[in-house]
Specification:
By secondary structure, this protein is mainly alpha-helical. It folds into 2 domains: about 1-230, no CATH class; about 235-365, no CATH class. About 50% of the residues lie in helices and about 5% in strands. It is built from 18 helices and 4 strands. It has a 4-stranded mixed beta sheet. Helix 2 packs across helix 6 (about 115-130). The protein starts with 13 loop residues before the first helix and ends in an 8-residue tail after the last helix.
Length: about 375
């Protein structure tokens, strides 16, 4: 279940607030100059593997689950894995309503998952790719330190990982597409099976090849950064129907947000493109924008979807090297140009803006045809 995020006040020293109000953090700023954060990460797939191994040695499942998870974490995990509809924030109310039943349900689910041969095979395969010493915290900490710098009033979510694309009630062949990264009010769930490599064999055969390419873990930070945008950016207004410019700039702000959190990541990775796809977009940027201009204020989505949606390439009849989501790319270029000429605009304020025409005009964006 996806929830919206209320702003939560995080108390910081006043001296620090005065400097975090500045958006002038350069792209090559070392993380030594950023506020410290301590991430709360639990890897459920490792904990589940420990429960299964303990049961193999004759251990009691209830005791093992309590030792590895505890009541609340166990219910959150089992609810996620069993495709429950109860958001993590409602788990406490389940305990208050009927603690004994909640605990019984937790034990039933945990023990079922631990004993399920298909699920255990999936977990073991994933852990072989992403073992306990895989440096997840070290990789994510710099990004969240930047997040804290730009958004000191927002709480950093609790991070939990597991195998996301498998319902343990099914067999190993029933691995299916699911959310790689799922955000709720206080929690960030990561399906590490979607970052185990494009050659990870335990994936749904129906997932297109062009999507599978992004399952390498080089895209992990980018996918997580994008998942954080609902915390800081309102949904695109739907009244009146948004036109192409609105879609482009709203999405462009997301990519700019990712850029500020991950300044050393290549643009191709931020766009989930290959290097060749980015090169095509850079070479043909002026030509694409010229084509877009005729539909810039069109609001019939079926007419503009080829510039916004995920697909193997931009459009039938075009050069097949033309990447998808070119509207997002042009929108990002406009936002980047706007922010270069308006350094006084705060990132958090940019993400709330909806005056699309003014942003375009004040950006001075005018791509030049290559000579």
């Amino acid at each position: 279940m996806r929830l919206r995020f209320p702003a939560l006040l995080f108390l910081l020293p006043l001296a620090f607030l005065s400097c975090t109000d500045d958006l002038s953090l350069p792209e090559d700023e070392p993380t030594d100059g950023l506020p410290q954060v301590k991430l709360d990460i639990k890897r459920y797939e490792l904990m589940m593997q420990e429960v299964s191994e303990g049961m193999d040695k004759g251990g009691d499942c209830r005791k093992l689950a309590q030792e590895r998870f505890g009541d609340k974490e166990a219910l959150i995990f089992s609810n996620w894995m069993m495709r429950g509809l109860v958001p993590p924030e409602a788990i406490d109310s389940l305990f208050r309503a009927n603690h004994a039943k909640a605990e019984r349900d937790m034990v039933t689910d945990i023990c079922f998952i631990a004993e399920n041969a298909a699920n255990r095979m999936l977990v073991d395969s994933l852990v072989a790719r992403r073992p306990a010493d895989w440096p997840l915290e070290a990789r994510l900490t710099p990004m969240f330190r930047r997040f804290r710098h730009f958004f000191p009033d927002h709480k950093i979510p609790l991070i939990r990982t597991a195998v996301a694309g498998h319902d343990p009630r099914m067999g190993p062949e029933d691995f299916y597409p699911a959310d790689e990264v799922l955000l709720s009010q206080d929690w960030l769930f990561i399906g590490l099976d979607y970052f185990a490599g494009s050659d990870f064999t335990i994936l749904h055969p129906g997932i297109p090849r062009y999507i599978r390419k992004r399952f390498d873990d080089q895209y992990l930070e980018v996918r997580i950064a994008r998942a954080l945008t609902p915390m800081v950016q309102p949904d695109l207004p739907r009244t009146p129907d948004p036109n192409l410019l609105a879609f482009m700039l709203h999405e462009g702000m997301k990519y700019y947000f990712i850029e500020r959190l991950l300044p050393h990541v290549p643009d191709s990775t931020r766009m989930l493109w290959s290097g060749a796809q980015l090169a095509w977009a850079e070479k043909n940027e002026a030509a694409v924008y010229k084509l877009i201009l005729g539909d810039l204020y069109a609001s019939k989505y079926s007419h503009i979807s080829y510039l916004l949606e995920e697909r193997p390439f931009a459009k039938p009849g075009w050069d097949r090297n033309a990447p998808p989501r070119l509207g997002h790319y042009i929108g990002w270029r406009i936002i980047r140009k706007y922010m270069e000429s308006h350094p006084q605009v705060q990132l958090r304020d940019l993400l709330r803006r909806t005056d699309w025409q003014r942003i375009l005009q004040e950006s001075g964006y005018k791509p030049v045809e290559p000579s």
